[in-house]
Amino acid sequence: MALPHSFSRAARNAIETTALLRDAPRPTTQQKAQLRRYEVSTLMKDGDVVQTRHIAPALPMFEDAFCAFTRGALVETEYGPMAIEDLLPGDTVLTQEGKSETVLWKGSVTLIPGRVDSRGRTRPLTRIMADTFGMQKPMSGVIAGPAARIVGTPAHLRHLHGDEQVLTPVHEFQDGMGVIETLPPTPVELFHICLKRHSVIRVDGLQFESYHPGTNAIRHVSRSLRSVYLNLFSHVESLNDFGPLVMPRAGDGEVDAISA
Known about the structure:
Strand content: 25-35%
Pfam family, one: Hint_2
CATH class: Mainly Beta
CATH topology: Endonuclease - Pi-scei, Chain A, domain 1
Distance between the termini: 41 Å
Protein name: Hedgehog/Intein (Hint) domain-containing protein
Shape: globular
Domain Hedgehog/Intein (Hint): 67-214
Structural class: alpha+beta
CATH superfamily: Hedgehog/Intein (Hint) domain
InterPro entries: Hedgehog/Intein_dom, Hint_dom_sf
Number of strands: 15
CATH architecture: Beta Complex
Radius of gyration: 18 Å
Number of helices: 4
Helix content: 10-25%
């Protein structure tokens, strides 16, 4: 029996991943290449939901596809709020425009935010207290992952964007009072979802974005790593299949403009 196209591609890229890691130059400090296990659920074209596990590099462009929402984050659907961990590909969520969009992909990863990796990095979470951005914004407080972005512009970035609506990393709003950094020393499961098109969705009363790799994410990434990255997304064939950004992104010293 012939394997489905996505499974064949996964097997091929698994071999490419092994070769990539074997052939990579060894660091002078003799540190092992850091890998991470990623869990993926995908809605296939025939309507089936396929769950897969992937071992891939613990690089920001990989982790950002999984690190937006913690367990218990309530995503607004046409049937009411649903916890992110219970949401499945094939379910629909409500966008900023009030439209229903089907979830095509959901990814999750477990990491320890307070643990320093081989490059000296941590992956802090951001706790947003209830009503920080207005009545029921968020409704009961929310803990967002390091890859989460919301619609808004903090005061220190307004000279760049003015009144323009932009998607800003949540950590840019940290003020030590209503929005604070938190570094749990224990494992935390994080999630992200991808829709047919990049959208703004409501999570705990706040406007977050669905997943999109961005227009600048892979400019300096090798072809081999790009292949490993795309293997995480069985519903797309190329980066162009993610479509355009719904609005510009801000933060990290640059603007990730809407792709053409």
